[in-house]
Amino acid sequence: MKKITLFSILTASAMIFFSCAGPQSNTDPESQRAGIIPQGVEFEALPDIDMKAKLAGFAEFELTSDLSHLTADELEILPLLFKAANIMDDLYWKQAIGNRDDFLSRIKDEDTRTFARIHYGPWDRLSNNESFLTNISTKPAGANFYPEDMTKEEFEALDNPYKTSQYTLLRRDDSGNLKVIWYHEAYDKQIKEAADLIRKAADISKNEGLKNYLHLRAQALLNDDYQPSDMAWMDMKDSNVDFVVGPIENYEDQLFGYKAAYESFILIKDPEWSNRLQRFAGLLPNLQTLIPTNEKYLKDVPGSDSDLNVYDAIYYAGDCNAGSKTIAINLPNDPEVHVAKGTRKLQLKNSMKAKFDKIVVPIAEKLIDPEQQKHITFDAFFANTMFHEVAHGMGVKNTVSGKGSVREALKETYTSIEEGKADIMGLWLVTKLREMGEITDGELMDNFVTFFAGVFRSSRFGTASAHGKANMMRFNFFEDYGAFTRNGDGYYSIDLEKMAEAMNALVDKIMTIQGEGDYEAAKAWIEADGNLRETLRTDLARLNEGGIPVDILFKQGPELVGLK
Ligand SMILES: [Zn+2]
Question: DSSP letter at 125?
Fold first, then answer.
């Protein structure tokens, strides 16, 4: 089969960040552009950076899964999905920096090049996007979505209804004026290749839900209208294989938070765990009414057929593979789909367990009061993470102040606020479900202490990301509430009652900002509290001395799951 060559190359080239769609004669508009990397210079690691130590900060983890419950057609489509996912990886590089191959070829040594692949560019995503290369300055907030020299004023002045679309780039025309170009035109050639692969997979698939979704998703890539395929994805209930693909999250656009970045996950369902989680879905509409905030913010009813399932991830490509690794997914992002059909939550059990074992546990040993360390459990970590995703689908979607959707009203502050909401409301949900007798294993203190240890874990990524800022805002909020104390040896101890109070107050604060669409309040809060305080900075430095990995690095590819 023709595939063998491709996959041999894939695995030989370290599997991870490499795209290997083969030689291409790209003729789409974006392949003509250099992007945001300086031209005509070479790059090496900055003199004060120990690149070997940097690389050692990533604990390697193989993405595998048991495929024995897959049907013949499910196994047959996987190689096609790997190829399509690789194209998403290529496209993400283009969105993040521009010309990947040219950039990598100008880096002098292999270790530094590997590090650049991990970060999809010259800025350390786990360390406030600091440059680690010579000849590279600050990361442009708008990545490669906008011209580097474009000002916010120039953007605001442009009269084009599609400039704020998630699926357009801003470019300059021949006379230097801004113009808007759709993704499917900008990346024309590769988008068509990906759509072809996905259509082939759709034709092979015998699962009606998956087949329909794949057909519509291929179409969506070609016209940048994702809603029909998002709706179809919501109706896809019983496939063992899932394929998340397309421009999805808007974290990479730090200028406005409008533009979506390409990514892909290939996922294999874990039937046993999935069944355990299904039963929680039915409780969500009732839980929505119990959120501790003004009831005027509780009018958006969460979709009643929202579903929760557990998967092993066998491939991460593009945006989701850059920086800190996603361990749970809540999609789609389209608020109209939320209202019509809810969202789906996909818990990635294998990547979650890797982070727990290799990062959370060693961190807790260094920072959590020895008396409370017995409360650090994988079950609690799993529940906290799962309910973070559930919480994204709850709360308020549309402002009550006539400012449109929360996402529109909060602009670039939206992701930090929304991630903060999901974290704290997730913990609130666990607390409520325990009160209702729906969760009985372990105890609430396990969730609280493990949640708190998770804050340390995420804080180490710095405050550049939406998650990083959300973490600091929460940590500082807890501190101001007395939810924890830090003893002289640098161990943290949780106060169960005060933590519960702080949790409720934080849920209310976030719901109010979102419900009112209060952009100014969100901005002021992030500026005041989205930063590391000095004591925590010192404690986190201790972790880095301790050799605890900063994150997981995936070894992945078709051969790891036994596909040739
Ligand atoms: Zn989230």
Answer: T
